[in-house]
Design goal:
Number of helices: 9
Largest sheet: 8 strands, mixed
CATH topology: Rossmann fold
CATH class: Alpha Beta
CATH architecture: 3-Layer(aba) Sandwich
Strand content: 15-25%
Strand order of the largest sheet: 2-1-3-4-6-5-8-7
Radius of gyration: 19 Å
Bound molecules: thiamine diphosphate, magnesium ion
Shape: globular
Order of helices and strands: HEEHEHHEHEHEHEHEH
């Protein structure tokens, strides 16, 4: 690229030195630059958490909402202005715990948005409680006897709901991560990308070294359209976790499925006529 990356931002970051979020942020800026996007074309949405601070550190439009609520504003923005590239950056707690219900039904809707989950397998911002992806037996300051619950498997859930694009990557392998990010952004439909992102302070088990030693890349001849094979891949953990595009399913995106919108301008392109709302409101009084 000979242009300067327009997504760079001078804002000081409130992340710990060594946090996986730094590399992840560099990765998304690089992916967007390589796709030759411009900042005004991009919106980054998030909920609450360390991961969810990302919209503050990238030169693009942003929406930092409530915990577990990164998806609804992203969907609203995409519906109002389908020309925008809408991306979510949020944590494993935010996306799979507090936001779990939105995740499920968003997969069913299949809007054309991309969801990058910073999966550090812990609640980072609130200082190290178990998240849905924390493994059984993992001892935390709250789960002093070790986590009792079985972990949530986002990849298996997404496949079971026929999510149109399901991938996993590790921020410690920048080339792999940027490649997957670009593919996910270009995918038409909802793309869920679980990104392993070490929390160097509150997760002493799933470290950089651990992810490096416990992940492997899917073979080139792996077929992501094979649902049964994908489901089998989603079960692998203890003997190595596959990274790459795990599942893909072609289907219409949310807006394509709404018949009456087909020959209508998008909301942002319609004339604003407050009088229409006035007469509508008068009906309530
Ligand atoms: C409704 C609600 N519940 C709980 C909280 C407290 N809270 C803030 S961030 C957070 C966990 C964030 O974890 P995760 O989404 O994994 O992000 P990370 O900090 O690890 O990047 C919690 C429980 C909140 N702000 N709002
Ligand atoms: Mg987390």
């Amino acid at each position: 690229m000979d242009r300067q990356n327009p997504f760079h931002c001078q804002e000081e970051k409130a992340w710990c030195p060594g946090c996986g979020n730094h590399g992840l942020l560099e990765g998304i800026k690089e992916a967007l630059d390589q796709l030759e996007k411009d900042p005004h074309e991009v919106v980054v949405c998030s909920g609450i958490g360390q991961a969810a601070k990302l919209p503050h550190y990238i030169n693009a439009n942003g929406f930092n909402g409530l915990h577990g609520r990164s998806i609804p504003p992203a969907l609203g923005i995409k519906v109002a202005n389908p020309d925008l590239t809408v991306i979510i950056h949020s944590g494993d707690g935010d996306s799979y715990g507090e936001g779990g219900n939105h995740l499920i039904h968003n997969i069913r809707r299949n809007p054309d948005i991309t969801h990058f989950v910073h999966d550090n397998q812990i609640y980072g911002l609130t200082k190290g409680q178990a998240s849905p992806t924390t493994r059984q037996g993992h001892v935390t300051g709250i789960q002093t006897e070790g986590v009792q619950l079985e972990p949530f498997n986002p990849i298996a859930l997404a496949i079971s709901l026929d999510c149109s694009f399901v991938a996993r990557t590790f921020m410690g392998d920048k080339e792999h991560m940027v490649k997957i990010m670009k593919e996910a952004i270009q995918h038409k439909g909802y793309a869920l990308v679980d990104i392993f992102q070490p929390c160097v302070v509150f997760n002493k088990i799933n470290t950089f070294k651990w992810y490096k030693e416990n992940t492997y890349k899917l073979d080139d001849d792996y077929d992501p359209t094979d649902k049964i094979a994908a489901f089998q891949k989603s079960q692998e953990y203890d003997d190595g976790i596959p990274i790459g595009v795990i599942y893909k399913k072609e289907k219409p995106s949310f807006l394509e499925g709404i018949e009456y919108l087909k020959d209508q301008p998008s909301l942002v392109k319609r004339d604003l006529n407050p009088d229409n709302a006035k007469s509508f409101m008068e009906g309530f009084f």
